[in-house]
Automatic annotation (TrEMBL):
<keyword id="KW-0808">Transferase</keyword>
<dbReference type="InterPro" id="IPR029063">
    <property type="entry name" value="SAM-dependent_MTases_sf"/>
</dbReference>
<feature type="active site">
    <location>
        <position position="109"/>
    </location>
</feature>
<comment type="similarity">
    <text>Belongs to the class I-like SAM-binding methyltransferase superfamily. C5-methyltransferase family.</text>
</comment>
<dbReference type="GO" id="GO:0032259">
    <property type="term" value="P:methylation"/>
</dbReference>
<protein>
    <recommendedName>
        <fullName>DNA (cytosine-5-)-methyltransferase</fullName>
        <ecNumber>2.1.1.37</ecNumber>
    </recommendedName>
</protein>
<keyword id="KW-0489">Methyltransferase</keyword>
<dbReference type="InterPro" id="IPR001525">
    <property type="entry name" value="C5_MeTfrase"/>
</dbReference>
<keyword id="KW-0680">Restriction system</keyword>
<dbReference type="GO" id="GO:0009307">
    <property type="term" value="P:DNA restriction-modification system"/>
</dbReference>
<dbReference type="GO" id="GO:0044027">
    <property type="term" value="P:negative regulation of gene expression via chromosomal CpG island methylation"/>
</dbReference>
<dbReference type="GO" id="GO:0003677">
    <property type="term" value="F:DNA binding"/>
</dbReference>
<keyword id="KW-0949">S-adenosyl-L-methionine</keyword>
<dbReference type="Pfam" id="PF00145">
    <property type="entry name" value="DNA_methylase"/>
</dbReference>
<dbReference type="GO" id="GO:0003886">
    <property type="term" value="F:DNA (cytosine-5-)-methyltransferase activity"/>
</dbReference>
<dbReference type="InterPro" id="IPR018117">
    <property type="entry name" value="C5_DNA_meth_AS"/>
</dbReference>
<dbReference type="InterPro" id="IPR050390">
    <property type="entry name" value="C5-Methyltransferase"/>
</dbReference>
């Protein structure tokens, strides 16, 4: 067994969880989840959801260049068709209640990361967690999937976990890097999966698909992800599956690595056997 372990800490019961790098699949195989992708960037996180068999039904992205890339990726059939809203601050999650199983997103880390000003989760940018939490409360999905700088552990994790717990979500978290998914760079990030079985007092039901159907879709998405990664490696000298050049360089810095998204979900969601 690999000597590399991923540490995770569950809020309720304060248990320490240890997972090997090659942890197995999630217990929710065969279930297609509808995703609302906040802070969607150029689509790395959404592609990670495709690797899991998810269907993205809506995305929110403020940066005009990245929003255009999302539309371009849809036109190229790298991503499924979905509407893109421009600002989390004006996004109304209430019409999506009952239609979304996962609200995902990496809220801005500029005030949390080592390169930032250290203002933490109350900073001007990272304070947008409040909007993500508001949308979670409005949508009431079965799952929330959150990503940020690992320094969130000292600059706001208790706020995130406390907010989620206050509205009935149990949460587990861990730190995972691109190198854990086989990429040639480290890029450690914190990942949080939160789960609530009830919405307005009734259990939520996901959309069921055969495991064969999910497997076929995931294999197709994996092939797309591989072509995406190879293209970026050739053009940018990097390997995190995102865009390149000037605006694209910033998109790389802020973006999620699709294979890490997939791996983080598979490891952390094992805690919630549905």
């Amino acid at each position: 067994m690999s000597a590399s372990w991923i540490e995770s800490k569950r809020k309720r019961g304060n248990r320490r969880l240890l997972f090997p790098r090659n942890a197995g699949n999630t217990g929710m195989e065969g279930e297609r989840l509808n995703e609302l992708a906040l802070f969607a960037g150029a689509g790395g996180g959404i592609l990670g959801g495709k690797l899991l068999g998810w269907r993205t039904v809506c995305g929110v992205e403020f940066n005009a260049y990245r929003a255009r890339r999302l539309i371009q990726r849809q036109n190229e059939e790298h991503l499924p068709p979905f509407p893109v809203w421009d600002d989390v601050r004006s996004f109304d999650g209430r019409p999506w209640r009952g239609l979304v199983d996962v609200v995902s997103g990496g809220f801005p880390c500029q005030d949390i990361s080592a390169a930032g000003n250290g203002a933490g989760i109350d900073g001007e940018n990272s304070g947008l967690w409040r909007e993500m939490f508001r949308i979670i409360c409005e949508v009431r999905p079965r799952f929330a999937f959150v990503e940020n700088s690992p320094l969130l552990t000292r600059r706001g994790l208790s706020r995130v976990l406390g907010d989620l717990a206050s509205v009935g979500y149990d949460a587990t978290w861990g730190v995972l890097g691109a190198d854990d998914a086989g990429a040639p760079h480290i890029r450690k990030r914190i990942w949080i999966v939160a789960h609530s079985e009830k919405i307005d007092g009734e259990r939520r039901l996901g959309i069921r698909e055969s495991s064969e159907s999910i497997q076929r879709k995931s294999e197709k998405s994996r092939a797309i992800a591989q072509r995406w990664m190879e293209s970026v490696t050739r053009n940018a000298g990097g390997g995190n599956g995102m865009a390149n050049r000037v605006d694209r360089t910033e998109a790389i810095g802020d973006g999620q690595v699709p294979r890490v998204v997939e791996l983080a979900w598979k490891i952390l969601s094992k805690e919630f056997q549905i």
